């Protein structure tokens, strides 16, 4: 990769200028490492330290050579299918060693990997697989995953499906056992020359993001971004060969995949991997596996804080945590209670051109956006005034965007690199990319990306998260598309229209889903319909996207462009003192949406949300 392109990529990260000056050697080292591929780094480590532990999972230790052995088998299987560099394979695997060696095995051939969310079912799953034009679909172990893929098998067309964790006699017709193939395949290594034509700008993998268009959209993640994020994350917390990284976040997301697994891989260190997050086992795992660094999202740390206090809370070897979304009001509580010396916070979008990494250790700050730093930043990240209802910039009389003042919430935008202006962000129609771009921002012809979130600057130009805007909200660490949920609810014959939005839940990060529905002519919302609505959302939507509350309104309020107006509805939420329309809640006990009263609301809030 050309040196100026590497500098452009790296300069998108917002460091405190003094930190950069004091770590000039470290920066140069990162720049050098970012010129290789993640798979090249892994293979070099296998040759250097084959017996060193790479993964610890369910008390089993997998060395670098053990994962290499399995990865080579995967590569040979893919080659036997006739796949080659540039092809795509979709995988839907939970956090377990098979995810790692399957991903690495496909990378050996230069195959791009679509990382499908393992919580998806029905239409969302069909779309995610079909959207990437994959040559094969590899599904991980587990009855839930097997049932999900079996349900959609007829809709997958000619895409062959392979399932891990079961032999052929335990699988339905049309699905092949991947385990049987692994047993019958030799771990013959491939020369890196088979992927020699794959450049750093080619697609390493697809990570899906939910946006305003409804369905999950596969984002092109180039090799430069995978190695870049991994290198920067490692540098942020000085992760080295003797560290142990604890990864409980899903590997189909950037934080778990690159800030967790990636940072450990390029360091040649060990990863303590857990299938799913457990607040009850978190600290005991960290002590058991001698964890030194963790990857987090804000919700994860909040769950830990909500657990009963223990004299063992600060008994561990953790010296740093890296992640995103830790609110300022709990930052110090986390540090003081759990005795974590360093918290490295970042912000970025999966499809974004740039990121912001905080190194100042200032509570809640994501980094700095000072006028001085912007002069040296080709991505020119800046906060501008915006319309809350549309999450788009407000223009002045000249048609240009308006920068905000210190202390004023602003929409984050960043300048698009010249080499990205004619490229798509998603493996989707070009219109989807255009929806994220803003043109003629400050001068005619300039192009910026809209990140869809608002932030605030303090008088020292430290940046703080303010709110998630537009047609997405976040719950249980997942971004939820309001349009996707509304479209799915609208498929029921008795529902004419639905407005979906996020509402806060006391004691929880993010926002839970709420739907305001209007009925089709001559329809009613009786006991039968409420059971049908419950069954439909539970079948068609992943658990984190199912609306907690439903509000029956007589008519939808529309904007001048005929979009649903949701601002007032979101403000009123499920407040029984304000809302006079009928309200219902997601009642798993009765398998229906049941009437919301003060008594049922108290019971619901005490349940496991």
TrEMBL record:
It catalyses: a very long-chain fatty acid + ATP + CoA = a very long-chain fatty acyl-CoA + AMP + diphosphate; tetracosanoate + ATP + CoA = tetracosanoyl-CoA + AMP + diphosphate. Keywords: Ligase. One of its GO terms (cellular component) is plasma membrane. One of its GO terms (molecular function) is long-chain fatty acid transmembrane transporter activity. Pfam families: AMP-binding (PF00501), AMP-binding_C (PF13193). One of its GO terms (biological process) is long-chain fatty acid import into cell. Residues 42-357 form the AMP-dependent synthetase/ligase domain. Residues 489-563 form the AMP-binding enzyme C-terminal domain. Belongs to the ATP-dependent AMP-binding enzyme family. PANTHER family: LONG-CHAIN FATTY ACID TRANSPORT PROTEIN, VERY LONG-CHAIN ACYL-COA SYNTHETASE. This is Long-chain-fatty-acid--CoA ligase. It comes from Elysia chlorotica.
């Amino acid at each position: 990769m050309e040196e100026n392109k590497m500098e452009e990529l790296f300069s998108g990260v917002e460091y405190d200028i003094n930190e950069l000056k004091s770590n000039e050697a470290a920066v140069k080292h990162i720049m050098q490492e970012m010129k290789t591929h993640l798979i090249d780094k892994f293979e070099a480590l296998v040759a250097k330290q084959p017996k060193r532990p790479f993964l610890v999972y369910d008390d089993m230790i997998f060395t670098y050579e053990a994962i290499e052995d399995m990865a080579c088998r995967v590569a040979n299987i893919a080659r036997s299918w006739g796949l080659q560099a540039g092809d795509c394979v979709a995988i839907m695997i939970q956090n377990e060693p098979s995810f790692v060696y399957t991903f690495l095995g496909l990378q050996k051939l230069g195959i791009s990997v679509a990382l499908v969310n393992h919580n998806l079912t029905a239409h969302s799953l069909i779309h995610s697989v079909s959207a990437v034009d994959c040559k094969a679909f590899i599904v991980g172990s587990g009855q839930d995953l097997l049932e999900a893929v079996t349900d959609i098998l007829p809709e997958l067309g000619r895409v062959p499906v392979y399932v891990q964790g079961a032999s052929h006699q335990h699988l339905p017709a049309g699905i092949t056992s991947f385990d049987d193939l692994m047993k019958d395949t030799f771990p013959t290594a491939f020369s890196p020359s088979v992927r020699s034509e794959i450049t750093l700008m080619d697609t390493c993998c697809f990570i899906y993001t939910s946006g305003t268009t409804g369905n999950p959209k596969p984002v092109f993640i180039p090799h430069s971004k995978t190695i870049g994020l991994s290198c920067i994350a490692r540098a942020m917390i000085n992760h080295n060969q003797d560290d142990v990284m604890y990864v409980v976040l899903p590997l189909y997301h950037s934080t778990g995949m690159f800030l967790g697994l990636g940072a450990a891989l390029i360091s040649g260190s060990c990863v303590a991997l857990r299938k799913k997050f457990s607040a009850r086992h978190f600290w005991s795992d960290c002590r058991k596996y001698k964890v030194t660094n963790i990857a987090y999202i804000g919700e994860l740390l909040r769950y830990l804080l909500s657990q009963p206090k223990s004299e063992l809370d600060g008994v561990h070897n953790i010296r740093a945590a890296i992640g995103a979304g830790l609110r300022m009001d709990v930052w110090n509580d986390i540090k003081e209670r759990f005795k974590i010396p360093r918290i490295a916070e970042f912000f970025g979008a999966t499809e974004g051109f740039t990121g912001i990494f905080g190194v100042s250790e200032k509570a809640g700050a994501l980094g700095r956006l000072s006028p001085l730093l912007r002069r040296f930043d080709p991505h020119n990240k800046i906060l501008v005034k915006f319309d809350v209802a549309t999450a788009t910039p407000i223009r002045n009389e000249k048609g240009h965007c308006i920068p905000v003042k210190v202390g004023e919430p602003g929409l984050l935008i960043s300048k698009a690199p010249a080499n990205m202006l004619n490229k798509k962000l998603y493996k989707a129609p070009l219109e989807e990319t255009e929806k994220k771009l803003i043109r003629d921002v400050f001068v005619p012809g300039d192009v910026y990306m809209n990140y869809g979130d608002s932030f605030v600057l303090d008088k020292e130009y430290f940046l703080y998260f303010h709110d998630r805007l537009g047609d997405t909200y976040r719950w249980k660490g997942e971004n939820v598309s309001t349009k996707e949920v509304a479209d799915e609810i609208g498929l029921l014959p008795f529902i004419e229209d639905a407005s979906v939005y996020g509402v806060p839940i006391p004691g929880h990060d993010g926002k839970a889903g709420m739907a305001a529905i209007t009925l089709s002519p001559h329809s009613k919302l009786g006991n039968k319909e409420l059971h049908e609505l419950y069954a439909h959302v539970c079948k068609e939507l992943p658990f984190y996207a199912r609306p907690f509350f439903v509000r029956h309104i007589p008519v939808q309020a529309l904007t001048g462009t005929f979009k649903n107006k949701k601002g007032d509805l979101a403000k009123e939420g499920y407040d029984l003192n304000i809302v006079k329309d009928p309200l219902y809640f997601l009642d798993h006990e009765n398998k229906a949406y049941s009437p919301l009263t003060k008594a049922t609301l108290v019971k619901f809030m005490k349940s496991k949300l």
